[in-house]
From TrEMBL:
Alphabetized PANTHER family for the sequence: HHE DOMAIN PROTEIN (AFU_ORTHOLOGUE AFUA_4G00730)
Signal peptide: none
Sequence ranges assigned to domain Hemerythrin-like in this UniProt record: 14-129
Highest classification ranks of the organism: Bacteria, Bacillati, Actinomycetota, Actinomycetes, Pseudonocardiales
Pfam family of the protein (one): Hemerythrin
Protein name, entry field: Hemerythrin HHE cation binding domain-containing protein
């Protein structure tokens, strides 16, 4: 974990937002692990959608900024993208097996370790340097783009609240990633790429 900033602007900066999403992802893994049956399917759909929103915002907004802003940025980002691809591959195996399969818990654990290691590498090798090297205005602009993507994230359990984005969570996990990516790309526009 890296230190939080002294507040100089209103609201969390982009790094705090992303670290907050990492914590939500960790909590969603725990929810999937702890639940069974319909609740596990629902929790898994939430996890897939949160991962899609988070990794897409990083891919479209955060990693491109990091390439330009940090020393050795291309290598750092290429390593992170390789980790994200590995996690997507594991996610597809998990999704193909399905939440009721006997191998689901072992595959879930593989994915959990891959995703949380990846998140920790981002925090250590990428986010801390973004915060160090970018101006407060630029960090705030990136935060705005991540917030635009976040409106597609699952909400806390709240009946009826998710109807607007529920269709984004239907179907195979990688199709969810594709739909979320289209929606996020439209929401953030091209200004921060
Ligand atoms: Fe990531
Ligand atoms: Fe991340």
């Amino acid at each position: 974990m890296i230190e939080t900033t002294t507040e100089t602007t209103t609201g969390p900066d982009v790094v705090e937002l992303l670290i907050g999403q990492h914590m939500r992802i960790r909590d969603l893994f725990a929810r999937v692990e702890e639940s069974e049956g319909a609740r596990r399917r629902e929790a898994f759909a939430d996890l897939v959608r949160m991962l899609a929103v988070h990794e897409t915002a990083e891919e479209l907004v955060v990693h491109p900024a990091a390439r330009a802003a940090i020393e050795g940025g291309d290598d750092v980002v290429d390593d992170r993208l390789a980790e994200e691809n590995h996690a997507k591959h594991l996610l597809k195996r998990l999704d193909d097996a399905g939440p009721d399969a006997p191998e689901f818990p072992d595959l879930l654990e593989l994915l959990r370790v891959a995703v949380l290691d990846h998140a920790s590498h981002e925090e250590q090798h990428e986010f801390r340097y973004l915060r160090r090297n970018l101006s407060p205005d630029r960090l705030a602009a990136l935060a705005g783009a991540v917030r635009a993507a976040e409106k597609f994230a699952p909400t806390h359990p709240h009946p009826g609240a998710e109807s607007a984005t529920a269709n984004l969570a239907a179907g195979p996990a990688l199709a969810v990633f594709d739909r979320v990516k289209d929606a996020v790309r439209a929401a953030v526009g091209d200004s921060d790429r």
